[in-house]
Amino acid sequence: MCVAESENESINGDPPLRRSRRPIRIASRQSQLARAQAQAVGRVLGKLHPDVAVEYVWIESEGDQRLDLSLANVGGKGLFTKAVERALLSDKADVAVHSLKDLPTQLTPGLSIAAVPKRGDARDCLISDKANTIEQLPQGATVGTASPRRRAQLHRLRPDLQISEMRGNIETRMAKVLDRQEFDATLLAVAGLQRAKLGQFADKKLDPAVMVPAASQGALGIQCRTDDHVSISRCLPLNHTQTALAINVERDIIEGLQGDCHSPIAAYCYPSDEEGRYFEVVARVFSRDGQQSIEATGKAEGKLLSKLTTQILDELLEKGAADLLGGVSQMMQGMA
Predict the structure, then answer these.
(1) What CATH superfamily is the domain 24-118+219-239?
(2) Which of 152, 221, 280, 310 is buried most deeply by CB count within 10 Å?
(3) Domain 124-201: which topology?
(4) What's the CA angle centered on 219, arms 109 and 117, to 5 degrees?
(5) Which has the higher per-residue pLDDT, 139 or 15?
(6) Lowest mean pLDDT among 13-27, 94-108, 238-252
(7) How crowded is residue 73: how many other Cβ atoms within 10 Å of its Cβ?
(8) What tens digit of pLDDT does each residue of 2-34 get?
(9) 246, 279 in Cβ contact below 8 A?
(10) In the chain, what's the furthest Cα-to-Cα distance?
């Protein structure tokens, strides 16, 4: 997490910055969801800096262009962020807004996460007109997903389900289930549906204890160039401390397990009391078919989350997480 002071104060011991009136250029993907997320951030920045124009730079990512191929075979979820990051690095934009779960844990050199706004609903939901729960799906039902995490957990709950690759934006995936009937069901992130003004379809929410969310699910990442102190200081007020703490834990677990888009890993950290002082963490690692799983859990105060993260990683590795993930990796390479 990049830490900066307010726009009029010293940053890293440098002389105080004068208030800049240069426009705020926000880069994002072109999908309906990405636009909604970027515009939500833009509205907040516009209120914080009413004398500064907010502009948008819409970018078609490589991931959006190559819908015919599996994510695992074309570079993973990083494909959704690389083109947007290039706009930042080439000074065509000052700020990028990402779905944080799409952003690789190894950050691109020269770029920093300036802020993580308050998290949306981290849960998955079932999209189907044939059932209200996973248990109610017909025997042998076909479920579409490109997520190894969802695939593994679905197989763990219902080994009879036929899981097939499904890619596309939210609207496309919903149409494949509800309109064209190509699949009996799919799973989508509740926060994404809500931000895309499709929250009415998120009525079959899944218990996160049963379908553990992906690391960073429901959270946005606001990214800037590391040396752009003006943009960092403009974005810093959007940071939500509790969300940032939780997200750092989840991303550190993925990175500590050397996970990537091929990895069936679920990690969820959330406040366990109203004051947000204590957090609970659950991490699960699965075999591709979901029949093997390793879990580690814990609870700690926010200031001790780093220590808890290390303990959870140690426990997962002691239980054989590396071997389990190694088997998944070999299987994916054989399918490529």
Answers:
(1) Periplasmic binding protein-like II (3.40.190.10)
(2) 152
(3) D-Maltodextrin-Binding Protein; domain 2 (3.40.190)
(4) 85
(5) 139
(6) 13-27
(7) 12
(8) 333 233 333 344 444 456 789 999 999 999 999
(9) yes
(10) 67
Reading the block at residue 195, the tokens are: 């931000």
Verdict on whether the full-model pTM lies above 0.85: yes
- Residue (of 25, 20, 8) closest to 49 by Cα position: 20
Angle (deg, nearest 10), helices 170-178 and 32-48? 140
CA–CA distance, 30 with 11 (Å, rounded to integer): 33
Give pLDDT tens digits for 256-288: 999 987 799 999 999 999 888 999 999 999 998
- For the annotated catalytic residues, the residue numbers are 102
Sole residue written with tokens 């959006």: 64
Q: What is the C-alpha separation between 57 and 28, in angstroms, rounded? A: 6
Whose tokens are 């220590």? That residue is 307
Architecture of the CATH domain 247-335: 2-Layer Sandwich (3.30)
